[in-house]
Design brief:
- This protein has one domain (about 15-45, about 70-310): Orthogonal Bundle (MetI-like fold), CATH 1.10.3720.10.
- The chain is mainly alpha-helical.
- It has 14 helices and no strands.
- The mean pLDDT is about 80.
Amino acid sequence: MNSAAPKLHGHSLLQDALQRLLRNRVAVYSAVFLALMALACFVLPLFACIPNPNLTDLDHIAAASSLKHWLGTDHLGRDMLARVLYGGRISLLVGLLATAVAVAVGVTYGMISGYVGGRTDAVMMRIVDVLFALPFIVVVVVLSLSIEDPCRQITASVVQLTGWSHDAVAPILGLLPVFLAIGALGWLTLARIVRTQTFVLREQEFVLAARSLGLSHFTILFRHIAPNLLGPVIVYTTLAVPGIILTESTLSFIGLGVKAPNSSWGTLIKEGADRMEVAPELLIYPAAFFCLTLLALNSLGDGLRDAFDPRSVKD
């Protein structure tokens, strides 16, 4: 008597990693928190309940929390909740966009260096060593001074062409020096990681089989090697975003980031630190949002690392 054989359903490495990630409650809660934070910063300010963050209210200077101003106001009567949400929009946007640029450059550079090898790899890695030696703050200062006037011209051109308000365009384009500095130096660590992984992958059987079939180097790199780098790249990305947000906040804290009257979490923390003795809530609110976001990003990064590399889990 023949019985039908049970069907066996296989699982891909991505599915296994996702299952391990979902079992990590801290990582899941962190992902939910980050989703809610993104919605609060990017969607909530679109509604009328959130006022203009630069609008002063002289009748409510340094006011306490109320129905009109949920987190109170600062020393100029500006709504703190609006400033924290708009500041979070700038900080998160810098972290995501700068990380995307760093990942794109670092992955491409590292794959080419590791795949080609030889003298080309040696030259490319020496370039990385030279860029590593450049002091980051000095690069930002030089870029800020050299492209300050072009940024103003670009801002005026964008406002004229699109019809958008100057207040909506200036905060983003004003961070162009920070974007350029992070883009010039932020991909170096990822390039080294990808290069090492590519060294291992290029000797695997599936790459040798692709070569024997006559596939082009471009196809081998981006269709066969790149997908196998997904795990380390995702982990690095989630761990790099908080670092870049922290960098932007540090630069804004020392006056090299967002320009007044616009704000990021770094500028709000700087303003709160200057007045912490008379109004500690001006420091507590942005610092709380900033610290919780960084904690969630780091927890999610740790969860992704454990999900994509189970060997990293300590017993």
